[in-house]
Design brief:
heterodimer, A: alpha/beta, TIM Barrel, about 50% helix, B: alpha/beta, Aldehyde Dehydrogenase, Chain A, domain 1, Aldehyde Dehydrogenase, Chain A, domain 2, 17 helices, about 40% helix, disordered N terminus
Chain lengths: ~300, ~500
């Protein structure tokens, strides 16, 4: 990998100019891909219920903002989220598990956490990889652990968080992407970060991972999905990430079963921009309901 | 790490015989038009710029300049005659003898700084004018041509009062009047990188832009007026080849600087043989872009695309021959195909356009003929299925694989968005193939190995060798060729030395 080359490539996405109908379509598409997230020590069943309400009905239905893809919560909150969303909904319940965000717990504990979350009604599990094992060259250990989590997931979709900021280099990110992709199933995700470190999803990291997904797909025919998480707060950023997908992976990845945004503040900015496209004017922030703090 | 990731891939599709997986680049999320709206402030008629004034041509003739993207007329341009060229040279000589040649360097620098600043002030207007006149995408004229033109004026403004240090231990003096002829691929940039060193060194200039792209040159004349440049220091004469010949063969100029085709370069050399005139020529190229198996392939693909499709391939240093190491040839070709499927060909004034219009009908015909010869000689062609506008001159980005060294498309300069792909096995073979050309302007090397980069840059007979990147320019970096790509350098200290007498 050549860092300068990657950054030059992604800079070109930023020069794309998205206007009018294309902008509106892009904004709605992005909204449908949001994993509305709250991952705080102070989360309560009430707060999670409010998040779920926001997920089901992000804004005035007249505006036509789609429901988000999922809500993402800690395992202890899964049953509350399940209850708030009900069983008859397209919005999925995602839960971080495996001793998120550090992953520093015995494998047995981590697997038990995954199973508990699935039993409580989680449709999707966001796991963290064993960065320690990866960085010390024990790729087999890291890969075996992911394989074990795949089994523990059962029917649930798995998202493998690489925690890119701890992997340091683009080469490591690509290598870790491949190690993960070889043991997860078609439709499972690789994900940039936990959102708990200083540097989260960037266009560069996103590019390295979606190129890995592309190369893996062209070689094996297996489509892996992608989720950048953390740090994507504005509609403009989200559109730029979508352009990266459009030009690297193509149309088949432009939907919420292949691409997600792990974010919370992003949703309101998307709605604000959609409202602006409709009315021609920006509305004051207090017109948009808050459900979480920024992530 | 990368090799670990890539080498263990199971090639399921190849083994099972299923059709290979394909990516879909369709119109699920199509972009709306996004034209740049700045006013190019064009006049309906442009006269010659002689002795600080716009003057009508003596014979009163004008020709049309069209927008190659729509074939619509943009403006009328004066058709200069030999008498006009003579008037321009007389003005340049008078300005050199009476004003410019006597002005101290620090005073000349002020004018150059002023020109650079005024050009920056009007950057968007110039970018739009450049795109309308030449067909290049607005994102290139906005992000490359205009800023780079200003950068050349700034850089040489900095030199103008430091010329005592440009050739340590020797004295430099201006040559006098210089005649310059420039091509249509980078009208404003070529103008800037020819004018700036000449003026910094204390010469005066008569310059002829290409007939299809005279507008930004004449717009720059407005800036020269606004900057208060003394009359006659810079003169612009417009027209076709006959005007160029008059500029080159006039007795006054002490030096001729030409950028253009090798064919015309040879004619110029013949006509100047035996005269006292100094000469620099920057001519064609057929650059090799060499990709080794240890290169960062995804980034190399980006560099290859930038190398050949930048400015529709109308670049003398375009990486038009791709030499790929055999083990990765297949992989690189697949990646290239997927990459060029998302290049957006269309109206150059749209901010999302990657490949704009071919500069003229003649050039389009030339490219079409060369591509036909590639098909006829048995190379395998790939073009993405993009829609082209109904009017205007457009050509799809084109890849040729299975090209051999004897194919015309591997030997002759196409000057269009056409890439010929060849393979090699060893470093020595790569060098031999890269150097097996009449040209020698530029080359690219893609490898992870520093020692190999150094070896290649020594062995490749090319004026510029880019390593793990392509088409990077800077006013401080000299640019020029070997063999039939010409001689003399432009930019940097070396470029200045070509505009002075050393003693």
């Amino acid at each position: 990998m050549d860092a300068i080359g990657i950054e030059e490539r992604v800079a070109k996405y930023g020069t794309r100019s998205i206007k009018k109908a294309a902008k509106l379509r892009g904004l709605k598409l992005a909204a449908s891909m949001v994993d509305l997230t709250t991952l705080e020590g102070k989360d309560t069943p009430g707060k999670v219920a409010s998040l779920c309400q926001k997920a089901l009905c992000p804004h005035d239905p007249e505006l036509g903002v789609p429901q988000v893809a999922a809500v993402c919560v800690y395992p202890a909150m899964v049953k509350h989220a399940r209850k708030a969303l009900g069983s008859d909904t397209v919005v999925r319940v995602a839960s971080v598990a495996t001793a998120f965000p550090s992953g520093q717990a015995p494998l047995k504990t981590r697997l038990a956490e995954v199973k508990a979350a699935v039993a409580d009604g989680a449709d999707e599990i966001d796991m963290v990889i064993n960065r320690g094992a990866f960085l010390s060259g024990e790729f087999g250990v890291m890969q075996d652990e992911i394989r074990a989590v795949v089994e523990a997931c059962g029917q649930a979709t798995l998202k493998v968080i690489l925690e890119v900021s701890e992997l340091e280099t683009y080469d490591n990110i690509r290598a870790a992407s491949f190690l993960a992709m070889r043991v997860i199933r078609e439709g499972d995700f690789i994900k940039t970060s936990t959102g708990k470190t200083s540097l989260n999803a960037t266009l560069g990291n996103n590019q390295v991972m979606i190129e890995a997904i592309r190369d893996y797909y062209l070689d094996t025919g297996i489509s892996i999905a992608m989720k950048p998480a953390g740090g994507i707060r504005t509609a403009k950023q989200a559109l730029t990430f979508l352009i990266a997908i459009k030009e690297t992976l193509g149309d088949a990845w432009l939907n919420h079963s292949r691409y997600r945004f792990g974010a919370s503040a992003l949703l309101n900015d998307l709605i604000r921009q959609i409202e602006k496209e409709k009315t021609g004017a920006y509305q004051a922030p207090y017109y948009f309901s808050e459900a979480t703090e920024s992530y | 790490m990368t090799s670990l990731a890539e080498k263990k891939l199971p090639r399921v599709s190849a083994r099972s015989g299923r059709p290979a997986p394909e990516l879909i680049f369709g119109d699920l999320w199509e972009f709306d038009p996004s034209p740049e709206t700045a006013d190019p402030k064009l006049k309906t008629r442009y006269d010659l710029f002689i002795d600080g004034q716009f003057v009508a041509p003596k014979l009163g003739k004008y020709f049309d300049s069209i927008n190659p993207a729509s074939e619509q007329k943009l403006a009328e341009i004066a058709q200069a005659s030999a008498a006009d060229v003579d008037a321009a040279y007389q003005a340049a000589k008078a300005a050199y003898d009476n004003v410019w040649g006597k002005l101290p360097g620090r005073e000349r620098a002020k004018y150059l700084f002023r020109i650079a600043r005024l050009l920056q002030d009007r950057a968007r207007e110039f970018a739009v004018a450049e795109t309308l006149d030449g067909g290049k995408p607005i994102k290139e004229s906005r992000d490359f041509d205009v800023p780079m033109a200003a950068a050349h004026f700034f850089y040489h403004a900095g030199w103008a009062d430091k010329l005592d240090y440009v050739a340590p231990g020797r004295k430099v003096a201006p040559l006098g009047v210089v005649g310059q002829v420039i091509p249509w691929n980078f009208p404003l940039l070529m103008l800037a990188w020819k004018l700036a060193p000449a003026l910094a060194m204390g010469n005066t200039v008569v310059l002829k832009p290409a007939e299809t792209t005279s507008i930004t040159c004449l717009k720059l004349a407005e800036i020269l007026q606004d900057a208060g440049l003394p009359p006659g220091v810079v003169n612009f004469v417009t027209g076709a080849g006959d005007v160029g010949a008059a500029v080159l063969n006039h007795p006054i100029p002490a030096k001729i600087a030409f950028t253009g085709s090798t064919e015309v370069g040879k004619i110029i050399m013949r006509s100047l043989a035996g005269t006292e005139k100094k000469m620099t020529l920057e001519l064609g190229g057929k650059a090799a872009n060499i990709v080794f198996d240890d290169a960062p392939l995804n980034q190399a693909v980006e560099g290859i695309v930038n190398g050949i499709f930048f400015n529709q391939g109308h670049v003398c240093c375009a990486g038009s021959r791709l030499l790929v190491h055999e083990p990765v040839a297949e992989q690189v070709l697949t990646k290239l195909k997927n990459r060029i499927k998302v290049l957006r060909v269309g109206d150059p004034i749209d901010k999302n356009t990657d490949i704009g219009a071919i500069n003229s009908k003649e050039q389009l015909q030339k490219i079409t003929a060369m591509v036909a010869s590639g098909v006829k000689e048995g190379a395998e062609m790939f073009q993405p299925a993009c829609r082209l506008p109904a009017k205007g001159f457009y050509f799809r980005p084109t890849l040729f694989s299975g090209v051999s060294m004897s194919h015309r498309i591997a030997r002759e300069e196409i000057f269009g968005p056409v890439l010929s792909i060849l393979t090699f096995r060893t470093v020595d073979e790569a060098i031999e193939r890269a150097n097996n050309t009449a040209y020698g302007l530029s080359a690219g090397v893609w490898t992870d190995k520093g020692s190999r980069i150094l070896k290649m840059s020594t062995e490749l007979k090319a004026g510029v060798v880019w390593a793990n990147t392509y088409n990077k320019f800077d006013p401080a970096s000299p640019f020029g060729g070997y063999k039939e790509s010409g001689f003399g350098r432009e930019g940097g200290r070396q470029g200045l030395l070509d505009y002075c007498k050393l003693s």
